Amino acid sequence: MNNRRVGAQKEEEVCAHLLSEGVHILERNFRCRQGEIDVIGYDGEYLVFFEVKYRKTPNKGNAAQAVGTAKQRKICRVADYYRFLHHCAEDTPVRFDVIAVDGKQLSWIQNAFDYQ
User: Fold this and answer.
1) 46-55 sheet: strands from edge to edge
2) Has residue 1 got a pLDDT over 80?
3) Which of 93, 2, 18, 109 is nearest to 56 (CA)?
């Protein structure tokens, strides 16, 4: 199985988990010139931008460690564009979460990083 297919399968599993937790998913794989956000949705009043990372083994570190500062800045730029495109109110509470999948273990890290 190729990496892209595995990634898509893990994103499916993550979305199923988020739906079971009451998250209203608005978009998946939102792409623009600035980059991509894996999942966008509402968790209660928060507009949440989710980054999904998967690691089959810990050889390259855990999945959450793969969301470094440069990736965080890119996610924030894409989130700004998404909010502009969809006319989101300036006072809409926003959160940046990471869903880390290490092997079969899923961890939802809410407020994983601040706006960069």
Assistant:
1) 24-32, 35-43, 46-55, 94-102, 105-109
2) no
3) 2
